[in-house]
Amino acid sequence: xxxxxxxxELRLSDAGKQVTLAGWVQRIRxxxxxxxxxxxxxxxxxxxxxxxxxxxxxxxxxxxxxxxxVLQAKGIVAERQSKNSKIPTGDIEIKLSKLTILNPxxxxxxxxxxxxxxxxxxxxxxxxxxxxxxxxKNALMLRHTMALEARKYLDGxxxxxxxxxxxxxxxxxGARDFVVPSRMNPGQFYALPQSPQQFKQLLMVAxxxxxxxxxxxxxxxxxxxxxQPEFTQIDCEMSFVEREDVLQMFEGLVKHLFKTVLHKDFxxxxxxxxxxxxxxxxxSDKPDMRFEMLIHxxxxxxxxxxFSVFDSAKYVGAIAVPGCADYSRKQIDELTEWxxxxxxxxxxxxxxxxxxxxxxxxxxDKFYSPEELKNIAEVVEAKENDLILVMCGDKxxxxxxxxxxxxxxxxxxxxxxxxxYKPLWVYDFPLLEWDDETQRFYAMHHPFTAPKxxxxxxxxxDDKYGLAEVKANSYDFVLNGxxxxxxxxxxxxxxxxxxxxxxxxxxxxxxxxxxxFLMNAFKFGAPxxxxxxxxxxxxxxxxxxxxxxxxxxxxxKNNMGRDVMAxxxxxxxxxxxxxxxxxxxxxxxEEK
Amino acid sequence: xxxxxxxxELRLSDAGKQVTLAGWVQRIRxxxxxxxxxxxxxxxxxxxxxxxxxxxxxxxxxxxxxxxxVLQAKGIVAERQSKNSKIPTGDIEIKLSKLTILNPxxxxxxxxxxxxxxxxxxxxxxxxxxxxxxxxKNALMLRHTMALEARKYLDGxxxxxxxxxxxxxxxxxGARDFVVPSRMNPGQFYALPQSPQQFKQLLMVAxxxxxxxxxxxxxxxxxxxxxQPEFTQIDCEMSFVEREDVLQMFEGLVKHLFKTVLHKDFxxxxxxxxxxxxxxxxxSDKPDMRFEMLIHxxxxxxxxxxFSVFDSAKYVGAIAVPGCADYSRKQIDELTEWxxxxxxxxxxxxxxxxxxxxxxxxxxDKFYSPEELKNIAEVVEAKENDLILVMCGDKxxxxxxxxxxxxxxxxxxxxxxxxxYKPLWVYDFPLLEWDDETQRFYAMHHPFTAPKxxxxxxxxxDDKYGLAEVKANSYDFVLNGxxxxxxxxxxxxxxxxxxxxxxxxxxxxxxxxxxxFLMNAFKFGAPxxxxxxxxxxxxxxxxxxxxxxxxxxxxxKNNMGRDVMAxxxxxxxxxxxxxxxxxxxxxxxEEK
Lengths: 592, 592
Prior knowledge:
alpha+beta; 592 residues; CATH 2.40.50.140; eight-stranded mixed β-sheet; five-stranded mixed beta barrel; 4 domains; BirA Bifunctional Protein, domain 2
């Protein structure tokens, strides 16, 4: 071993001990005749010291050092003259007797500090240097702890972690698969799993009534910001359960993680909200519960007063933004432009200001009396000094636009504090989504999601509107406005399953071709079952108080799916392609 | 919840309780007026009972049942008349008040019993049914426990589990990569990792001094029996360590697993053996230490007596097979044929029998006096009633053939008991292997393996024979004749690394192209480091006392890399290939 202690370990009580440390040079300083080196490893920083009259070999080596050199340092632990209360080792320093350069280092292209001078691209290219910085180290440490604690909780509840294959069968339904040509089976391809969905359901058929896996999944989608082509799930499934059992079990998991990882005690049950309510009041199926500013429908309150924009709208809704009645004309104009961006999609914005002097000012004063405006303010639960923002149009679209605006105003007002956690279950999602283009229903979750027992009549009816109202026996776990987990009770009854295929417009042959393998397994005694999967990367980022997942993945890819550090993907040679029975149709690669 | 208890939980102390169970029908029996159902779940079997005078609804349902039906059973726990001491629930039964069929089942194609009537192919196709059987359930349970305990031990020793990518850069060195065409980067491919070797070394550069990962790896090789295209490793790496530190740490891991999983205490240090000794005495770099029967060289003892076969041989060696002096002529002939098979590769077999009456009989009596034979017997450490088997030829090949014969005789004599564990470290492997065909050295482990410090002179010499003698700073963990783990101290000094590339015959450009990315990272301060990886599938199988890994993988592939259950790999459609910028050159698929 090159060391007796780590650089985060020594305290005043160790004074007088002969120790050996190893690590990286964080900083070199000279103060009068004293020479200091801050030596860093994963565990912390320890100050090394020698004076100009110290061992000659030590000062000789000191003169050669640069940032990030790898050193071995021997010496005696001593109390510091000027202590540093910011670090746990700040009371001591090591009086050097010997210093050895284990490896020199060229100067890194950016500083290895909590706040670095390196830009994002540079840090991505030298990811192994960026990973030396505390924020990333803490992120990966948090991830390690979360995974371990999740495993401990699930093991303690009789869940078995069972590894499912990565090289699986490609299925045409769903998002795009990554595929892997098979050399031994010419012309055929494996797919990489988008999730272990079918395998975990097979494990339920096989009697493994409590399964989980922290597992890599793959999705070949055009990458939106902060999406990765490979990502990690905490994937879970249980047999002989109803929805309440699943929610209880995984609420327990989340509480365990809060307690063990963040030392936060959640004793009360998590909030629960039906999908319809989430849309009505938050304009989102993943409400951020850290602040109020609820959406209220005011259609009835505003129609019939001669304002044709409202009169012709299917829906009029509003939010009351607290303390913003003093918004200037310029600020309102800016906000109006903002809501009209395609990402928000509103046609316009009406405001009502509840001034502190008791007066009311709105952009529709022409059509509404102060009394009528006050009445609206009451419905919207607005208080003095609030700015009411009103939008109208198609119900769903307007709710979503109001929800997006609500989040933006929450941001502007600093109401979305990342150190506050507001967990929420959203349930009673629609089972089916009608697609006007293809004139058919699609499964909102996946075709194995069970309808709610009380909606069975509608499920078997042939009424399109009735079908659209059928609720799924599904649930999402939402944390601070982010969907972190989702799942459902699955269909285990073959009659219900065949009806689902019928609704989705599959012929028997199509259903057989796409799902026959799983359906066949179900014939041999499938238990009632359901499950859930957490997006682990996102879960970690939220626990770390961050919005972006990239720091919580050791070696992430960029928006083009590239690992810029390793320069992957890359070209492969023709011999290899020939062995795999494929040729490339891409334009010829340029010579470098 | 569909149940109040599992089928493995109830005891006599629960008698009188009203309970609800759920599970699968294992067996249905009628004895007089009594009807019995054995209900099975993951936790055990519980007997349900009703008599013909019981609730009519119950008997009605009983009459519909078949094997593997999924039931919910309500009733009262009662003491059994005739107890079954073989199962933990054997003292009680459930007097049924209600029985519900949760799902019917078609009759499975083989029996769900510890000893099934299903053949291997049938069980592979219906893997989800095979997984219901106890041997597979126990195998996966053991795997779950081993993974969790490995994580606990490593976490307890400050290791961080860090996930490395699955979509990485293809490297031309080493075994064949599985590749994944990139849709967003036309003509380019990702590779699936054969191991996270480069990433874990980067993590050392990044300062994560104790890394591990239980990780899926991929190798597109022609599959020998019991090899899988995807497999799992416990992958580990440490910084600021020497070989001894690595061995201590992972010996600790193995001991922890023995203790927590198998309840076996290994207090003494594991045996250690240099590679040369392993070959000399066991004819293998992974000796099975469960039995003796050591190989002894007898070249000097047999030459110069006029037996030209021995006189012209470079090496003559022998083993003493205990208690087999009474082998018949027929048995000796069979054994001679056996050693001449290409898998063993011996040219022939000489025997010496040490009969119980004190006489000696050999196939070379013509050339050797009884005294001389006794002298050989002494060298081979043979005792009365032993059968000495002698082979000769090229030293290495003969040692290996003797080693293979040693294992075979161990099998025949029942000396390889799978419930006995003999762990062993093998070390001091050669660093380089000379290949006559390409007339160059290859790295025996990989080109980042450090030479032993004391062999540095030879390492820098230009003498081919000197180079061939350089030992690697590497080690294998061997359990009962199987290599379960392997690793090395890595090169962290760029001078040593460049010398390695020189020895392997790479130009600077070639080295740069193949390994430049990692070498570049090393410039920024690489710590001394080393590590090890365990083959997790094999480790589990050995702990389970089995020779085959297939039962320890939930959904394995066959020797053609096929998942016969899901029928993967499979053909994909042209649209998908077009999106990926590839076409297939395989003969057209047949219409099904």
